[in-house]
């Protein structure tokens, strides 16, 4: 009888240990999957021969899962495809291959090297001054997207001679081409050519009309960059112009909206 009890006790604790181990494994799996995020890379759609130039129809976007702790490596993000089109490949690349920086020759054709190669047709590059505060503590990087927020002192809307300070969003989802001299380019070995720890200017990709507007705005006031999530492309409508009177009247409303978003888990 005693031996049966011991045997049953051993089986019970063995099952308990198994269940605990299984539970821990599931917890670790959940943590790993929770840290995974979608990354959009460039995939070759057809065989590319040695020295062949990459054309737009030879590549496509592919989404893969990447763990947050996993290094990006030498793969090329799809939003940098303009840096790939027209480049020659070193050797044969089979269809279906995820393109890497090491697959490309390092030289550009004449007139396409440097910053000009990063600008999309129909856009222009312009640099504006920033400091640690206006550049999100210097955390804005090349190929990030930002909103441009301006603060200005205009004549008061009532028509008197006093000046009224106003803050408003000028442009949304503006691509940052460079921070200082860092264009976010990778060399052939997958390392960044230039990576500065601090910068006093950012270079933006704008339309010609937007260039005029931003140059005027920088002369008349102060511009802040508001960093966007890399997946967010939506444009927010009906934004307000904030002055002292508007702020006083709407503080309670802002807090109620924030409380509602927190309850919804946003």
Secondary-structure topology with pairs:
Blueprint: H1 2-35, E1 36-44, E2 59-67, E3 124-129, E4 145-155, E5 163-179, E6 201-206, H2 208-220, E7 221-227, H3 244-263
Features:
single chain; 266 residues; alpha+beta; Type Iii Antifreeze Protein Isoform Hplc 12; 2 domains; 5-stranded antiparallel beta sheet; 25% helix
Write a short abstract of this structure.
This protein has 266 residues and is α+β, with helices and mostly antiparallel strands.
Protein described:
By secondary structure, this protein is α+β, with helices and mostly antiparallel strands. It has two domains: 28-106, Antifreeze-like/N-acetylneuraminic acid synthase C-terminal domain (Type Iii Antifreeze Protein Isoform Hplc 12); 117-245, no CATH class. It is built from three helices and seven strands. It has helices at 2-35, 208-220, 244-263; strands spanning 36-44, 59-67, 124-129, 145-155, 163-179, 201-206, 221-227. The protein has a five-stranded antiparallel beta sheet, with helices on one face. The longest helix has 34 residues, at 2-35. 14% of the residues are buried.
């Amino acid at each position: 009888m005693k031996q049966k009890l011991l045997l049953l006790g051993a089986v019970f604790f063995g099952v308990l240990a198994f269940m605990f181990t299984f539970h821990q494994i599931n917890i670790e799996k959940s943590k790993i999957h929770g840290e995974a995020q979608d990354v959009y890379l460039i995939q070759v759609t057809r065989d590319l021969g040695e020295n062949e130039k990459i054309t737009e129809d030879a590549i496509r976007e592919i989404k893969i899962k990447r763990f947050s702790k996993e290094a990006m490596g030498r793969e090329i993000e799809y939003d940098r495809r303009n840096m790939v089109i027209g480049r020659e490949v070193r050797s044969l690349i089979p269809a279906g291959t995820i393109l890497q920086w090491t697959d490309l020759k390092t030289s550009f054709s004449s007139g396409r090297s440097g910053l000009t190669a990063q600008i999309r047709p129909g856009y222009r590059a312009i640099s504006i001054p920033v400091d640690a505060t206006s550049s999100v503590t210097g955390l804005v990087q090349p190929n990030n997207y930002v909103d441009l927020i301006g603060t200005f002192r205009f004549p008061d809307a009532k028509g008197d001679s006093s000046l009224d300070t106003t803050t408003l969003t000028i442009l949304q989802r503006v691509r940052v081409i460079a921070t200082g001299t860092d264009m976010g380019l990778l060399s052939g070995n997958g390392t960044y050519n230039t990576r500065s720890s601090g910068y006093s200017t950012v270079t933006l990709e704008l339309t010609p009309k937007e260039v005029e507007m931003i140059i005027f705005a920088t002369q008349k006031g102060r511009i802040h960059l508001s960093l966007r999530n890399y997946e967010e492309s939506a444009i927010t409508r009906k934004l307000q112009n904030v002055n002292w009177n508007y702020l006083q009247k709407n503080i309670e409303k802002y807090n109620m909206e924030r409380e509602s978003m927190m309850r919804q888990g946003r």
